[in-house]
Amino acid sequence: MHELWGCEDARVSERTVLHSGAVLDVRSGEVGAADVLIVDGRIVDIGGGLDGDVGVDCSGGVLVPGLIDCHTHVCLAQTMRDPLGVPRSARALSAVPVLRTLLGLGITTVRDAWGADAGVRLAVEQGWIDGPEVLVSLRQVCTTGGLGDHWSTRVGPVDFFGDPAMPDPVFDGADGARAVVRRMVRAGADWIKVTATGSMALGTGVHDVQLTPEEMSALVDEARRHGDRRVMVHAHGARAAELATRAGAASIEHGTYLDETAVDAMAAARTWYVPTLSVTQSDPDQAPEGAAEAHRTSVRLALQAGVPIAMGTDNPVRPHTEALWELRHLADAGLGDAGALRAATIDAARLLGLADDRGEISPGKRADLVLLDGTDLDCGSLEKRIRKVFRNGLAVG
Closest Cα partner for 213 from 263, 265, 258? Predict the structure, then answer.
């Protein structure tokens, strides 16, 4: 070992050893002492007494994989506050501080659940801005009258998100479903996001089923035809979640009011559940009456049925600075601390089709890592414990 640097001043060279810390095995939930050797942004070895060009002192801390938020909105913090008053460019530019905040919290990959266009993904890839890797869905597609159909009784269509990079999301019928997928794919979507119920925030239609089985099946099939893309489904109510599951959707988002029939279908199909508990649990008094309890019950039913769960926040419904609160809510809802960390790492990577590349501290995986102070897994205040974040083997911040 040529030099040993304190974590605050750590430099990453071609061969870097994260030294004298504990390492979390997210699959087993066990923590053990080990060094981690990083070469060219990849983990190449884990064990004792490893050597490299530069060492990072991780004593007194635990290394966990970079965290993954499977449901966030990096471009909506400003436009949600004043959708008609801010310039169009503000939508994308507002992502710059949000992405920096998320990366500082140890979130190294996000799936944007609508709002970010392909240019935001490109800006991170090219290093123009700092942030997690971004997977985009562009718009939330919907049938006429759905959440993505911005319309006013006074003036008619009010599409303040529309531009060539953000195609028209409204469709009707199976043929229309195929066409909307093609529009999103043409504009660079990694995922197709569809709304199958109304909005809990708006207090309307949370138990509605806003697509026919034929429409949902067409979305799933057409997405698969285009690069094996998959469909994520906004669904608060049980019947919409069940319909989406039976059509082959990859994940149910929110699922506030699931029941045994819905979760049994999800378990049988291995459909992922992204609860976004922060929406109801971070400030239960602001949620509709009974929603906080119903949401926890949905997670409990899903766990009992064996439904796979991945972490997602739905920020900025709550501020992006609170992103890690989602892990404490998952832990409290029945996953426990180790289970919540698994939902935010290897299981989130599995949902996103990225488990071969990231999500755990393992040789060959991308060196997305978070160094936490202390060696316990308590998710109660993770944001206060972050000592260092590494993305692609590079120390950030």
Answer: 265
